[in-house]
Amino acid sequence: MNVRPLKTDADHAKAVAEIETLMDATPGSEAFDRLEALSKSVDAYEAKAHPIVAPDPVDAILFHLEQSGDPRIVTADYIDVSSRLEELGWPQPRDERIGILPQRFEALTPADRRMTMLSRTRAIQKLFKVKKVPFSVVKGRGENVGIVHTASVDWFTGVGPALFVAAALLRENPHILSLALETLANYLNALFSEKGGRAGNATVEIVVEKYEEDGARTCKKITCPASPEVLTKLSETFHKVLD
To answer: Which terminus of the chain, N or C, has less C-beta within 10 A?
Structure first.
């Protein structure tokens, strides 16, 4: 049985009211056929007039982390990475890759020509390659990366790089972030075993990008202890929320 498509809220209200009168219709009867046709028409109208918008991946992650109540995982606003790269004249990292940010990226200015990373970053890059985690180092074209050797800094407060995750990657390939965190957790587990199991004050930072309704991009920074346990938990959270 064909039913004319609903075009207005008044049409919708009228159809809903008629459906209520047909709820006891006998299957196979003309009334039941009309009930089914009206129901499909109402569903189609509601899907078009009041679509259910999937939550932004970052909003979903932050909500889940807040609900977990784990004080070890802290979220905060962060600079717009894309805008900062434009200011610096640096190329944007490819959307399908994890970006590795240099030290103190948020404080860099166009006058800063030297960027540095901790020496452990090289070890992490090698592991990412082995585990097939796509990544790119965020830097200027043709610039060399200065390395701050682990021996010259307090290793307890500097484990590795901040990871940048573009909005497109979160939407299209969220498993990459989980894989990156699993790899980092395994690396830290081995590193801390050499140091007597102590993590000290070391932290790990993940910068996630999101699209706002007006098309603008904003970023949030997730900071957690450099603990294999916490990173594994974070990886599981991302996997659960994004899949």
So the answer is: C
